[in-house]
């Protein structure tokens, strides 16, 4: 790296960090204000009480019934409400699967 | 096969008969008691996976998820006693799980949800105060040679799919309408205080942060990263309290 680019990038870094600190100061000051949604937006957080994963307080207890393994391998979640450019219905790639079963 | 090994094997495979030599205290049929115990073992592990991968479960539906998780439990029983660690390689299992191939972003969703659980349980670390970071501005030459230490919860995920948008949609009404699924996204996962947060960041910003995490100096990290907004990226890291150290690079050229 030449001395010039080194100086340039050092200057750019100082400017960037300086402005980052002022942005961070503003966002911290307005942390409670939900309307402060710019550029990066607000963080996305999980709503689930179980968000800390298994073994945390809301983990369920095991069922005692014995269930046979009678299930079909056809995903039935929200996938089917998903837009798909390639699908004739405009929705999810699971339609073909469902048609087959 | 030892008695213990036979018992453990039968515990994981519902197709296997009750191990020989079992007795029940009240004279009940050992096979039916064993079936209940086996069911409890498998259900508790499947429940653990469902707790750690709630959006994966929503994406494929409960029935499919529990069936898939059940096969995982049989093939990958716990290797340690920490239940929140269980299922670390569930994403890799999903990658190879043929029936899930119709949901191509499922494995990456599992990766994102795993990073969130990891972030929850990552060690605490004291972030630098803004004044401490500002102090680095006084010496521009030294600044460019600085390396950055991040909070242990910080992690990145690069996906060929809109995995963050899909995840975010499932925190609300679970409709994916309007999301372009094959629009790749870069996720930044971190814990700010007690809250785990997920951000969609530019590819360049992701590369920059990854470079820093690999121990590169600020200048080095910038050199190989595609164009991105450096100020916004640094502001994001600062305001979410994940910068814990600024080190002077020991091996200067």
TrEMBL record, chain A:
<keyword id="KW-0732">Signal</keyword>
<protein>
    <submittedName>
        <fullName>DUF2282 domain-containing protein</fullName>
    </submittedName>
</protein>
<dbReference type="Pfam" id="PF10048">
    <property type="entry name" value="DUF2282"/>
</dbReference>
<feature type="signal peptide">
    <location>
        <begin position="1"/>
        <end position="31"/>
    </location>
</feature>
<dbReference type="InterPro" id="IPR018740">
    <property type="entry name" value="DUF2282_membr"/>
</dbReference>
Automatic annotation (TrEMBL), chain B:
<feature type="domain" description="Putative DNA-binding">
    <location>
        <begin position="3"/>
        <end position="94"/>
    </location>
</feature>
<dbReference type="InterPro" id="IPR018640">
    <property type="entry name" value="DUF2063"/>
</dbReference>
<dbReference type="GO" id="GO:0003677">
    <property type="term" value="F:DNA binding"/>
</dbReference>
<protein>
    <submittedName>
        <fullName>DNA-binding domain-containing protein</fullName>
    </submittedName>
</protein>
<keyword id="KW-0238">DNA-binding</keyword>
<dbReference type="Pfam" id="PF09836">
    <property type="entry name" value="DUF2063"/>
</dbReference>
